[in-house]
Amino acid sequence: MGADLYREFKGYLKEHLEKILAEGEQHMEESLLVFYTNQWKRYTLASTYVHHIFRYLNRHWVKREIDEGHKNVYEIFTLSLVSWRIHLFEHLDKKVMSALLKLIERQRNGETIDTGLIKSVVESFVSLGLDDNDSSKTTLDIYKKHFEDPFVAATEEYYKLESERFISENSITDYMKKAEQRLEEEDKRVALYLHESTAKALTTVCDTVLIQQHTAPIQDEFQSLLDQDKIDDLRRMWTLLNRVKDALEKLRKIFETHVRKEGASAIEKVAESALSVPTANDGENDDDEPPAPVARKKPGKSKSGAVDVDPKVYVEALLATHKRFASLVATAFRSEPGFSGALDRACKEFVNRNKVCVDGSKKSPELLAKYCDSLLKKSNKGTEDGDLDEVLTSIMTVFKFVEDKDVFQKFYSQFLPRRLVGGTSASEDAEASMISKLKVDCGVEYTSKLQRMFTDVGLSADLNSAFKEQMDRSHEKAEALDFYVLVCGQASWPLVPPKTTFNIPEELLRTYERFANYYTNKHSGRKLTWLFHLGKGELKTSYAKCGKATITLMASLYQMGILLQYNNQTSFTSGEIAAGTKLNADALKNNLELLVKLKVLILEADRYTLNLDLKSKKVKLNINLNVKAEQKAESEETHETIEQERLWVVQAAIVRIMKTRKTMRHQLLLTEVIEQLTGRFKPKVPDIKKAIDMLLEKDYLARTDGQKDMYNYVSLEDGSRLGGRRTVCIARARSSART
To answer: Which GO terms describe its biological process (predicted)?
Structure first.
């Protein structure tokens, strides 16, 4: 009975669907879709009711037949779907699909359509997909075969014709807007009425037709957009080409070249400006302006051909270029690693090789260190503490691109002790912050000496407080001077002893002797080496006026030694001053010329007379100025020192490598030395070869017999056969490494 009932119901469905098919063949296009949708909804609703009515049949006869392996037996609702597919869908599918594609094309052309109609038809396609092996499961085979494949093919054809026509009639920027709009429409279309599985195939064909097939003309427009700073168009181009494999690589190369040229151009403008704008012929003045006008000259070039530029202007030009393109990368290119890497490579190039760095990549770190020095001085009144930390952070951005980090370290380690010794440091917190930033980027070894300087400053403060307390207890206040000594560890501070003798003025001698005795008693076995050329003090005049107040001169210790002699008389010959101060000829000449230049003294014949008419706009007048010629000479001397130290560092690296490897070929040794030292500086191949030759002479290395390009490490035991020569070389090498 169950078989008869099932067979009769199956026959009824066939007869019913044939009637619907005959009626459906009378409809065309959108009316066919309306008819198909209405009939599908009525049919599936009725099939649901009938399925419940035949629940007993499903539970018993149908289940038994399925369990016994009969393939053509289904539950009643599934039978209804199978019958719809066989007796109606397979006869109307082409007409329905054609109507669907035309309706979707009308929507793409801008017409308003009933998207619910498409959604209902598409859902019917999905519902008709039944698994042949298990009728309780559904598949997307019907949907993919009868809808997705023709839909994707029609999409490809539509956009191929449209894109070719549009790009031939419009600009690339307009085409990119059109392509972006079309891609957004297709994404919405999937969400609106397509099955989610279609998204991948649809996206692939759209990317191919709208972008990949037009990649070349889109890429060719990139340079023009960069030149015009069209951020929105650049973002749109990146978004589109990012959908195509390897399409961004050409853009990254163009971007890197563009940034490099823009950076070089910015520095070229700085160099040209430095050559055209006159600058003062004197040195820096941290606290006061010179009391009188000084001669001015046009800046030229150094002996090496490098242009003398203002460190602040130079570094700010580098920062402005990096900030501009970093913002572009973040905004237009979504901080994509490829473009970030291109920006870093370009910045590294123009930071180290530009019109200012004509003699190599050492000028940038020198100017960067000088800019840091100016920021961290008290004279930097234009930057608040909060802003200062931001500026220091931005400086580390430039520092990241500097190849010769050892040059920055050398100059910074010269400027820091000057700020600490001279008391010109703006803030201990700012100094500590900068050292902390350097430590993060370069490691503990890079900043260890800088940190020990701060330790010495703290210990010196305690030492001076204890000394002052003792002086207050044991001496009259009238005898006490406002006296402060900074005691520096010789190993940490790059300070050199003075090149001249100096006779301490009588007014300072007693306090000097008391401190020396105090320190010797407190720290037996230690020896103080006094660096008088770094000392400074204040001299209160009784003749020079600033309004009603008398002027206080802020002078170096050598200047104090000269001027204190004028307490006895108002005019001296240079010989008499030399006899009183014990300064050598060069030191005496430099200091006297500066005092005359600042009109503190008046030169008449060979006599230096005190200028009793000295005037100033400020009560405290700084006459302890750096001479620019001395600064240039010191800079050149520092670079020479760096070259020598680099040779030692290269030798030390070679010894470390060979001590580990024992035997190594020449080319491999060169490569490994460069890799090890690149973080500090980029060693030149001729310098490495020179270091190898020196180590061969010192018997650290030896050539392998019969192989000129192979080196062997000579151990200490092997070298002991050479007598005293080996011992001397080791001591020298270790000393060099510490330096």
So the answer is: ubiquitin-dependent protein catabolic process
- DSSP β-ladder status, 549-556 and 620-622: parallel
Residue 158's CB is within 10 A of a number of other CB atoms, namely 17
Query: Strand order of the sheet with strand 701-704?
Result: 663-665, 707-713, 701-704
CATH code, residues 249-439:
1.20.1310.10
Q: Does 544 score more than 60 pLDDT?
A: yes
Q: pLDDT band for position 302 (50/70/90)?
A: low
Identify whether the C-beta of residue 614 lies closer than 8 Å to the C-beta of residue 620.
no
123-137, 300-314, 716-730: least confident range: 716-730
Cα 715 versus chain centre, distance: 43
More confident: 2 or 588: 588
Task: Report yes or no: 267 and 352 within 8 Å, Cβ to Cβ.
Answer: no
Q: Where are the domains of the chain?
A: 2-139, 156-241, 249-439, 459-532, 535-626, 630-738
- Whether the pLDDT of residue 170 is over 90: the answer is yes
The CATH code that applies to domain 156-241 is 1.20.1310.10
Q: Distance between CA 624 and CA 603 in Å, rounded?
A: 19
The residues facing 538 across adjacent strands are: 554
Question: Does 249-439 match 2-139 at the fold level?
Answer: yes
8 A C-beta contact, residue 371 and residue 315? yes
Look at residue 289 and tell me whether its pLDDT is greater than 60. Answer: no
Residue 119 has pLDDT above 80, yes or no: yes
Residue at token pair 């460069």: 674
Give the whole-angstrom CA distance, residue 2 versus residue 68.
15
What's the full length of the chain, in residues?
A: 739
Residue 233 binned pLDDT confidence (cut-offs 50, 70, 90): very high
**Alpha-helical segments (H) within 662-699:** 666-677, 685-697
- Among residues 341, 351, 346, 340, which one has the least CA distance to residue 317? 351
Angle at 171 between CA 166 and CA 172, to 5 degrees: 90
Nearest to 266 by CA among 337, 218, 323: 323
Distance separating alpha carbons of residues 444 and 438, to the nearest angstrom: 9
Tens digit of each residue's pLDDT (9 = 90 or more) over 244-277: 999 999 999 999 999 999 999 999 999 888 877 6
Round to the nearest angstrom and report the end-to-end CA distance of the chain. 106
Picking from 431, 536, 526, the residue whose alpha carbon sits closest to that of residue 487 is 526
CA 692 to chain centre: 35
Q: Taking the domain 535-626, which CATH number applies?
A: 3.30.230.130
DSSP 278: -
Per the listing, tokens 């494999």 go with 245
207: which DSSP letter? Answer: H
Domain with residues 630-738, CATH architecture? Orthogonal Bundle (1.10)
The CATH code belonging to domain 2-139 is 1.20.1310.10
- Mean pLDDT across 495-524: 87
503 CB-near residues (< 8 Å, 6+ apart): 561, 580, 581, 582
CA 396 to CA 351: how far, in whole Å?
13
Q: Which CATH architecture has domain 459-532?
A: Irregular (4.10)
Phi, psi of 33 (to 5 degrees): -65, -40
202-227: burial string, b at 16+ Cβ within 10 Å, e else: beebbbebbbbebeeebbebbeebbe
Confidence of residue 385 (pLDDT cuts 50, 70, 90): low
User: Angle CA(713)–CA(718)–CA(721) in degrees, nearest 5?
Assistant: 140
Query: What is the mean pLDDT of the segment spanning 714-728?
Result: 44
Rounded to an integer, the average pLDDT of 42-46 is 93
Round the average pLDDT of the chain to a whole number and report it.
85
